[in-house]
């Protein structure tokens, strides 16, 4: 009987602990929703523990039970945004009508622009780093999330390399300073693709990110009221780098 009573008490204690963990997770999610609302409505400098506490009817010290400081909060928000974007890219990639390297890359590239268009403040936080606490250098909590995001396009470009369609320069033609920098890229890509393929990867990504970020940050407003044709033109050029005649 004592054994059964002890087992029941243990089960109740575990249930209480799970309930507390669930409530804590829900509160942390609610805090991040509030932080994102402030980011969107008022800008990155409005994302502060004091402002969030005020919005949620809490005291600032009360938030410290969930996020120890501003940096921990901003890092968690950055992870949330990266993971949301990454999930959208993967969904677009996997649901592309044409399941080829070209079709999958095209779908993901367009999904990147679409997400950015609908989430300009969030795009700005994770890519322009207006807050030092949103940095994703190695060792930062959001570094892994940024790597997951980058891995989507690295994986897609690797599909072109494995298919043998990359218009890569001949071995020995890249300048030594290029080669030294490309060796560092292996940290993000892995040892498999040769340096000439990594050169094309960097070139393709810089063009894709460049045209999207120029639109998001308003740097095309002086010339274009609708930058979509420019985006599609650049996308065709990028695909020309990745998929040439064998």
What is the total tally of β strands?
A: 0
- How many domains, as an integer? 1
Helix count?
10
Could you describe the largest sheet, including whether it forms a barrel? Answer: none
Identify the CATH homologous superfamily: Tetracycline Repressor, domain 2
Query: What distance separates the N and C termini?
Result: 77 Å
Residue windows where pLDDT falls under 50 for at least 5 positions: none
Q: Return the CATH architecture.
A: Orthogonal Bundle
Determine the fraction of residues in helical runs and give it as a percent range.
Answer: over 70%
Shape: globular
Evaluate the radius of gyration. 23 Å
In a few lines, what is going on in this structure?
The protein is mainly alpha-helical and 246 residues long. The chain contains ten helices and no strands.
Describe this structure in words.
The chain is mainly alpha-helical and 246 residues long. It has a single domain, classed as Tetracycline Repressor, domain 2 (Orthogonal Bundle), CATH 1.10.357.10. It has 10 helices and no strands. The chain has helices at residues 2-42, 49-56, 60-63, 70-94, 101-118, 120-128, 143-163, 176-189, 195-216, 228-242. The relative contact order is 0.09. The model has no long low-confidence stretch (mean pLDDT 89).
């Amino acid at each position: 009987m004592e054994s059964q009573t002890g087992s029941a008490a243990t089960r109740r204690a575990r249930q209480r602990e799970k309930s507390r963990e669930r409530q804590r997770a829900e509160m942390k999610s609610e805090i991040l929703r509030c932080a994102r609302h402030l980011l969107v409505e008022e800008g990155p400098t409005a994302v502060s523990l004091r402002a969030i506490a005020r919005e949620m009817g809490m005291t600032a010290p009360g938030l410290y039970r969930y996020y120890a400081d501003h940096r921990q909060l901003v890092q968690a928000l950055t992870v949330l945004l990266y993971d949301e974007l990454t999930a959208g890219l993967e969904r677009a990639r996997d649901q592309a009508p044409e399941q080829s390297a070209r079709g999958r890359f095209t779908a993901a590239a367009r999904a990147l622009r679409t997400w950015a268009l609908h989430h300009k403040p969030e795009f700005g936080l994770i890519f322009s780093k207006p807050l030092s606490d949103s940095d994703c250098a190695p060792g930062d909590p959001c570094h892994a999330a940024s790597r997951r995001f980058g891995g989507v396009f690295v994986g897609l470009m690797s599909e072109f390399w494995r298919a043998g369609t990359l218009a890569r320069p001949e071995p020995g033609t890249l300048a030594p300073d290029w080669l030294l920098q490309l060796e560092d890229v292996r940290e993000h890509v892995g040892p498999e693709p040769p340096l000439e393929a990594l050169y094309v990867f960097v070139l393709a990504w810089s063009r894709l990110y460049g045209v999207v970020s120029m639109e998001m940050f308003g740097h095309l407003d002086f010339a274009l009221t609708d930058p979509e044709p420019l985006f599609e033109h650049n996308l065709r050029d990028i695909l020309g780098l990745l998929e040439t005649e064998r």
